[in-house]
Structure prediction request, 288 residues.
Amino acid sequence: MRIDLHAHSTASDGTDTPAELVRNAAGAGLDVVALTDHDTVAGYREAIDALPQGLTLVTGAELSCRLDGIGMHMLAYLFDPEEPELHRERELVRDDRIPRAQAMIGKLQGLGVDITWEQVARIAGDGSVGRPHIAAALVELGVVRTVSDAFTAEWLADGGRAYAEKHELDPFDAIRLVKAAGGVTVFAHPAAVKRGTCVPESAIAALASAGLDGIEVDHMDHDEATRARLRGLAADLGLLTTGSSDYHGSRKTCRLGEYTTDPEIYGEITRRATGAFPVPGAGGRVRG
Prediction:
């Protein structure tokens, strides 16, 4: 089995619609793909309705968190999307995205960049607006060469010249909320130093004690030495280890299935989840 547990659609900051994402996942030879848009479940219905025969969809989300001033992302899988408290927190994060984006655009304009809200809104479309959309606008304007080049201290990285904060979950609260909704939590790309400061390993240990299920190890932003170190840490802490592409369509260079998750780990994730079931075949329903 080929299992990719981290992918984005136009419901957040990917360039594939949810339907295109599942079709492309099947075309890439995947058996399982997880839809993990940022702080939203808006793509579920379209993805399920378009699900090709032979491909299983894992419903999820990538939750925006912050610990001691350091941004981090928590992958949440197979939770009940209607659970009220987690739903309310996702709405708070989503609603703060527009004023936050507008604040960053204002900072960029103050730095002499000819960027507008209208340009960013066009790029975001129906998606949940975020930094990757602003980064794409900077690429369009020729300010940076790639989206990744915008995530530096010069521009949009945490603490960067054009950075603005938004409402984000405490990761300990995120773990509690996801578990209460029957889901499973995996810390996304925990050592992606290219993105900025990472939380220390002592914090990962504390999150593990609070119920964190796993860490994403095999990821394009982790080199071989980092992956080996994270595997050792996971073994010490009793955490599951996952691998995934973090696919964003044409917005990033990663390909669907570039990194994958061991089938035994996937099986353990599905065993632990009680909020929703993976959706097999050509359509189905997420259990609420």
Observations:
- Residues 283-288 have pLDDT under 50 and may be disordered.
- The chain has ten helices and seven strands.
- Strands lie at 3-7, 32-35, 56-67, 70-77, 184-187, 214-218, 240-243.
